[in-house]
Design a protein that fits this description.
Layout lengths: L1 H34 L4 H14 L4 E3 H11 L6 H11 L6 E3 H13 L2 H12 L6 E2 L1 H15 L12 H12 L7 E2 H9 L2 H7 L7
Antiparallel strand pairs: 1-2, 3-4
Helix pairs in contact: 3-4, 4-6, 4-7, 6-9, 7-8
């Protein structure tokens, strides 16, 4: 009898949980419709996929790195994935919620050039002090080289990550004070056709 009662209680708990989810979800989806550039249908599809991959509703850094490694099997994407994870994990609690995931994706796939450049600046500004140093830029560029693997190995015509950083830094550090501010970053990127074109690589239609 005790076992049967426990089962009934468990089933009722499950039903209650499902009812809570049903009640919560439309409110959450409607809010995300207003704060992102996705439609309700797109968000519902993404939520279904997100819950399937992450039943707990949260993505930790290790899982995020595993997802990235599937897209870049030719190299080591773990360092770059670490930086992107931090940019998505806006409350820095070590996990990404569906809301954080969708907000980040919205900027990258549907955001304006300005949205994407602001996201990129925050990615490079690793310690969040409002400036990009050579060391921070090198960390990101090196992680991109590592991720691309054989496709980014320097040939006689290519340059090393350090040389790449030096060239970019010289162009962006307009007042030559050794750091790049958000204004310098935005001005430099907007006036560089190569950079503005590369930002459209993220554009997707789901």
């Amino acid at each position: 009898m005790g076992t049967v009662f426990a089962t009934i209680t468990s089933d009722n708990d499950l039903e209650d949980l499902e009812m809570q989810t049903v009640r919560y979800k439309p409110e959450g989806i409607d809010k995300l419709c207003r704060t992102t550039k996705f439609t309700k249908k797109e968000l519902q599809l993404m939520y279904r996929g997100f819950k399937q991959e992450c039943p707990s509703g949260l993505v930790n850094e290790e899982t995020f790195k595993e997802i990235y490694s599937q897209f870049f099997p030719q190299g080591d994407s773990s360092h770059y994935a670490h930086f992107v994870f931090n940019s998505f994990d806006t409350d820095h609690n070590g996990s990404i919620t569906f809301e954080e995931f969708v907000m980040g994706l919205s900027v990258l796939s549907r955001g304006t050039l300005n949205d994407k450049l602001n996201w990129a600046f925050n990615l490079y500004d690793i310690n969040g002090d409002g400036y990009i140093t050579r060391e921070e830029m090198l960390s990101i560029i090196q992680s991109i080289y590592d991720m691309m693997g054989k496709y980014s190995e320097p040939t006689s015509e290519d340059i090393t990550p350090g040389e790449h950083v030096e060239r970019v830094f010289q162009k962006m550090d307009l007042n030559k004070d050794g750091v790049v501010t958000i204004d310098e970053f935005l001005d430099s990127c907007r006036s560089d056709e190569t950079i503005t074109k590369s930002m459209h690589v993220f554009d997707t239609i789901l």
